[in-house]
């Protein structure tokens, strides 16, 4: 009887551990994103060495509906509207008078980049995290 109770406890612990790992993986968006999840994607080279000439460059007076992403730089100039999330393997740089309805994710993966990972000028309206 005691062996059965111990085996049941071990089985329950293993099941709980599996659930915790699955929940943690589902909360990490980088583990589940595919190229089809983006309206705009650029700069697919490895993010380990930052290259500011690769990425997504959003000009002035632009509206994008969908996710925007890059392994390097997402750079939005002035008077922009992004209805979706912004994902960057390194840097997000935002200009003036922008609106983002979504979340911003940035990870400094490059060893040769020392600046701010997320930066912006003035009057940026965020609805998200």
List the helices and strands and how they pair.
Layout: H1 2-26, E1 38-42, E2 55-58, E3 62-65, E4 67-70, E5 73-76, E6 80-83, E7 86-88, E8 91-94, E9 98-101, E10 104-106, E11 118-120, E12 124-127
Parallel strand pairs: 1-4, 2-5, 3-6, 4-7, 5-8, 6-9, 7-10, 8-11, 9-12
Explain what you see.
- This protein has 129 residues and is of the alpha/beta class.
- 19% of the residues lie in helices and 36% in strands.
- It contains 1 helix and 12 strands, in the order H-E-E-E-E-E-E-E-E-E-E-E-E.
- The protein has one helix spanning 2-26; strands at 38-42, 55-58, 62-65, 67-70, 73-76, 80-83, 86-88, 91-94, 98-101, 104-106, 118-120, 124-127.
- The strands form 3 sheets. It has a 4-stranded parallel β-sheet with strand order 1-4-7-10, with no helix packed on it. The chain has a 4-stranded parallel β-sheet with strand order 2-5-8-11, with no helix packed on it.
- The chain is globular.
- Residues 16-27 have low confidence and may be disordered.
Biggest sheet strand order reads 1-4-7-10
Assembly classification: single chain
Instruction: Tell me the distance between the termini.
Output: 51 Å
Report mean pLDDT, rounded to a whole number: 82
In brief:
The protein is of the alpha/beta class.
List keywords for this structure.
single chain, 129 residues, alpha/beta, 4-stranded parallel β-sheet, 1 helix, 12 strands, 19% helix, globular
